[in-house]
Amino acid sequence: MKKNLLTLVLLLIALMAGAAEKKVSSPDGRLNVSVDIDGSGHPTYRVDYDNKAFMLASPLGVNTNMGDFTQGLMLKTSKEQRVTDSYELKTIKQSHVDYEANELVCTYEKDGKPAIDIVFRVSNRDVAYRYKVYEQGKTLSCIVKNEASAFRMPKGTTTFLCPQMRPMTGFARTAPSYETNYMLDQPMEKSRDGMGYTFPCLFKTAADGGWMLVSETGVDGSYCASRLLSSGDGVFSIGFPMPEECNGWGTVEPAVALPAYTPWRTITVGNTLQNIVESTVAYDLVQPKYEASKEYTYGKGTWSWIIGMDGSCNYDEQKRYIDFAAAMGYRSVLIDALWDKQIGYKRMEELARYGKEKGVGIFLWYNSNGAWNDAPQSPKHKMDRSGVRCNEMAWMQRTGILGIKVDFFGGDKQNMMQLYEDILTDANDFGLQVIFHGCTLPRGWERMYPNHVSSEAVLASENLHFSQGMCDNEARNGCIHTFVRNAVGSMDFGGSTLNKFYKADNRSGSRRMTSDVYALATAVLFQSSVQHFAMAPNNLTDAPAWAIDFMKQVPTTWDEVRFIDGYPGRFSIIARRHGDTWYVAGINAQDEAVETIVTLPGNPVRKTVKCYVDNDRLEGSLTDVKTGKKGTVKVRIPKNGGCVITY
Question: What domains are there in the chain, each with its CATH number?
Answer without folding.
Answer: 22-284 (2.70.98.10), 299-558 (3.20.20.70), 571-646 (2.60.40.1180)
